[in-house]
TrEMBL record:
Gene Ontology MF annotations: flavin adenine dinucleotide binding; oxidoreductase activity, acting on CH-OH group of donors
Entry keyword set: FAD, Flavoprotein, Oxidoreductase
Residue spans crossing the bilayer: none
Glucose-methanol-choline oxidoreductase C-terminal domain location: 493-610
Keyword check for Zinc: no
Residue stretches making up the FAD-dependent oxidoreductase 2 FAD-binding domain: 144-175
Organism: Mycobacterium kubicae
Protein name in UniProt: GMC family oxidoreductase
Domain Glucose-methanol-choline oxidoreductase N-terminal intervals: 192-404
Family per similarity comment: Belongs to the GMC oxidoreductase family.
A Pfam family matched in the record: GMC_oxred_N
Length: 621
């Protein structure tokens, strides 16, 4: 980092978290933020540094002084003025704030996180996996089938094919993590290492949507919440009847859903471990007469340490790296880790395998006549395009994100939302009518500080009161209006939320506010400009009516639909059985083939559909 960049970072720290009011020393702030930035892709890191330099320059232009030479109140005023210049300026300041708070909070609470991780031993050992790092792999491998991606879809396909007697190789871009690493590695290093782009991927739009996606042996199942909902029957029927995706016929898919739940050992989160955050949601829903229940999860042995999102330090969350992948390996499958698949090899309309790259750029060719692409909804269309298999006009389009928002409520007494299950209970009252699923959800301590408003003394005051805050989130079933394209070889995710889905978000936020007040919150943090906090449901509704869609703070964890499967050759790049149209031997078995938003956390949907596709492959072999 240059001295100028270091000074700009320190100046921002003095404005965001001033030492005079209990914030970190400037040098400590710089060290914390740089630790995270160093793990980001170069383009993202440069963009953040450019933003910090711009903020420093803005202080000089508007006050004639650097931020660090202003008094704390004047520093806050500079940030407020810049953020108020317009939606784009506000989004830029908020984006840098989110990154800074994540880095600072993870370090502030690192001792608590690691102590909690080490309170008890793992409930199960790491599974036996046949994993070879790409650096140790031969440069040419032959197999019957090669699977790109080891997450929810790839793992289930690998198990099915291997058990059918096929020689299977799984190629995974990420690396294998061990439970001991989850128990001892600094939280920000776990976060940056387990997510694509160090967890800083964003869908560009108005508003921008934060889009974290896992990258590891086991894929996103290593870092998801462990929530395991079946797709609603209405969704299954829509996929089958509306899109002609016959594998989703409820009478047919039911067997696969049963098998997925057995594999994952799905059971409702026990109330005695979900923590106060989840119990507040259930009690509030009961008081309002709303439908609610503990969330079904794949976490046998969970004790509620709230670290699902950065790798379970007890191996309690039962991701596919602990079940389907070792079962596939027991049947003979092999995994190559740390290898990014560059292209699908094909000749005269027939798949021939894949070419992957080691971190040093050297190639590995896995030769096989069957290729299953399970790289996820943002990576699968990019891989197919790089392979000159992307001629279908709808490939990379139809992207649904299942966008999510969160509100927080401050209570008079302590809640400690992070002491319990990360995602524990849900309200279903508005799910069928509005496509809104509300869940009690938290983050590892310190890593959800972005819910707090303001800068300087105001922000630090909220951080001090973090133990008194409960957090409820909601996801809305959205239209597939997004897309994945390439700019200079780098994926660009574009998503402008549809007006109908903005209306759903307003319903969701209003309902969350009612729940928080019914639970006893004295004020609710909205994230809305002009009404950062409200003290009644009526005040929240008024703020929502005044809000612009561009002012909403959104995240998304469930991208789907970019290689939709169905009968219509014009609309669906993938046929009803999971075959990519236009070539023999290439199949798709991940979230990208779900024709529309599954309306629930999609892990079970992806795994069940992948099982169905794998059965088709076995039948065709």
């Amino acid at each position: 980092m240059s001295r100028l960049a270091e000074r700009a970072t320190a100046d921002f720290g003095t404005a965001l978290l001033p030492q005079e009011h209990g914030g970190p020393a400037p040098a400590e702030f710089v060290e914390r933020l740089d630790r995270y930035l160093a793990r980001m892709p170069v383009t993202t890191r440069l963009a953040v540094r450019a933003g910090l330099m711009s903020l420093a320059a803005a202080s000089y232009f508007t006050t004639g002084r650097s931020l660090s030479r202003l008094n704390p109140v004047a520093r806050e005023q500079v940030l407020h003025r810049i953020a108020a210049l317009g939606p784009d300026a506000g989004a830029a300041v908020d984006g840098i704030k989110v990154i800074a708070l994540l880095a600072n909070g993870a370090d502030t609470y690192a001792h608590e996180l690691l102590s909690r991780a080490q309170e008890q031993g793992p409930v199960r050992p790491d599974a036996a996996l046949s994993v070879t790092a790409s650096t140790d792999s031969p440069s040419v491998i032959r197999a019957d089938a090669v699977i790109v991606g080891s997450g929810a879809g790839g793992a289930m396909a690998a198990r099915t094919l291997a058990r059918a007697g096929m020689d299977v190789v799984v190629v995974e871009e990420g690396r294998r993590w061990t439970v001991e690493e989850f128990r001892s590695t600094h939280p920000i290093d776990r976060y940056a290492g387990l997510y694509r782009g160090a967890g800083a991927t964003v869908a560009v739009g108005r508003p921008a949507v934060v889009l974290p996606m896992g990258r590891a042996v086991g894929g996103t199942t290593v870092v998801n919440s462990g929530t395991c909902y079946r797709p609603p029957l209405s969704v299954q029927r829509r996929w089958c009847a509306g899109f002609g995706f016959g594998l989703a016929d409820p009478d047919r898919l039911g067997a696969q859903l049963d098998e997925v739940e057995r594999t994952l050992q799905v059971a409702p989160a026990p109330r005695n471990i979900m923590g106060r955050n989840g119990n507040l949601l259930l009690d509030a829903a009961k008081a309002l007469g709303w439908q609610a229940a503990p969330i079904p999860r794949n976490a046998p042995g969970c004790e509620g340490c709230c670290q699902c999102a950065i790798g379970c330090p007890h191996n309690a969350k039962f991701g596919v790296h602990l079940n389907a992948l070792p079962q596939a390996c027991a049947a003979g499958a092999r995994i190559i880790s740390n290898a990014r698949v560059e292209r699908v090899l094909h000749q005269r309309g027939q798949a021939r395998g894949v070419r992957a790259r080691r971190p040093d750029g050297t190639a590995i060719d896995v030769l096989a006549h069957t290729v299953i692409v399970a790289a996820g909804a943002t990576e699968t269309p990019m891989l197919l395009r790089r392979s000159e298999l992307g001629a279908h006009p709808r490939l990379g389009r139809n992207l649904a994100l299942h966008p999510a928002t969160m509100l927080a409520g401050r209570f008079d007494d302590d809640v400690y939302a992070w002491r319990g299950v990360l995602q524990s209970a849900a309200v279903h009252e508005f799910h069928e009518s509005n496509g809104v699923l509300i869940e009690a959800t938290s983050t590892p301590p310190g890593m959800g500080s972005m819910v707090f408003p303001g800068y300087g003394a105001e922000l630090l005051s909220w951080l001090d009161r973090a133990p008194q805050v409960a957090t409820f989130g909601a996801m809305v079933a959205d239209q597939g209006v997004g897309s994945v394209t390439s700019v200079g070889g780098v994926p660009l995710v574009r998503y402008d939320i549809a007006p109908a889905d903005v209306a759903k978000l307003r319903v969701a936020m209003g309902a969350i506010g009612q729940l928080l007040f019914a639970a006893g919150a004295v004020e609710v943090l909205t994230g809305l400009p002009g009404a950062r906090t409200v003290s009644s449901p009526a005040a929240l509704q008024e703020a929502l009516q005044r809000s612009s869609p561009r002012s909403l703070h959104l995240a998304a964890f469930h991208p789907t639909g970019t290689a939709a499967a169905g009968a219509d050759e014009q609309l669906c790049p993938v046929d009803p059985d999971g075959r990519l149209r236009g070539i023999d031997g290439v199949w798709v078995a991940d979230a990208s083939i779900l024709p529309s938003c599954p309306e629930v956390n999609p892990q079970v949907s992806i795994m069940a559909v992948a099982l169905a596709v794998a059965d088709q492959i076995v039948g065709a072999s």
